[in-house]
User: Fold this.
Amino acid sequence: MTKTALITGITGQDGAYLSKFLLDKGYCVFGIYRRLSTPNFWRLRHLDVLDRVNLIPGDLIDGGSLLDALRISKPDEVYNLASQSFVGASFEQPVVTGEMSGIGATRILELIRITNPNIKFYQASTSELFGSGHTSASNETSSFRPSSPYAAAKLYSYWMTKIYREGFDIFACNGILFNHESPLRGLEFVTRKITNSVAKIYLGLETELRLGNLDAKRDWGYAPDYVESMWLMLQQEKPDDFVVATNEAHSVKEFAEKAFYAVGLDWQKYVKIDNRFIRPLDVGYLKGDPAKIGKIGWTPKVSFDELVNIMVKADLSRWQNWQKGEGFPWDAFNYPGEDQILSRYQRKDR
Assistant:
């Protein structure tokens, strides 16, 4: 019998990769997307799955649209990936971040409880829950110290997922995923910002790359590997929470260095520090211990070096094709310059 999945945030990096993964497993896939004046389906087009998914307009802050989505899709599994997921933006928009990244999950869980408590639910949690102060790998029992409105909102949804699991016997899992990147990552995120700029600098389209805290360390994995873990959690006999990570930590500086090295350039000649990208509160170190999820069969397949090379190669190919006048699903050519984007935290001494 064919299973049906409903994915919120289907147009994002994880939503697109998860759609392809589930379709390849024979699922019928529905996805909730937000109506925008300019549709954002480039990732689904890039993976050649847009014509294979069923799209439902909706929003995490609109309970009625979520109810419609459940009634239309009649899912066996719900993957809640939608969020205001950029940590930096959460300082500028803390209220909407709380609504979407925190309370949105509760809306879905309550609707599942009311309409069909047999639906399995996956909540996209985050390594940002652990916050500052950790100096070794975090696991499922490590303390949480959120250091951003995004992390605080995600902590709320994390606990609500556990409460609905334990209080209402709903099959609900938290996937505490550490940073996972790919060529489909948004340009707001530092990894994709780096690889996109490296490609443009190599081709003579830019002359510098402005970054904030070069010393921040993260546990970076490959997004297509990580979506498999989401599915795997919902195939277990009992629901649980799992850390998904590589157990390696690399600095922003190291990521930039390797990205420039991939095209034969010295990163120090092009990288400039810009205070606009220093967050009011920043997490200096995040590394995850994936031992628990390893026991149910998940391991990362793509190494850090391979990840950087994959992303640089993809952005270089995109800009080379753009120079030839070729059209294809892509975000960067239509993205505003950073000097056009003003922040309440923009400093005069940059």
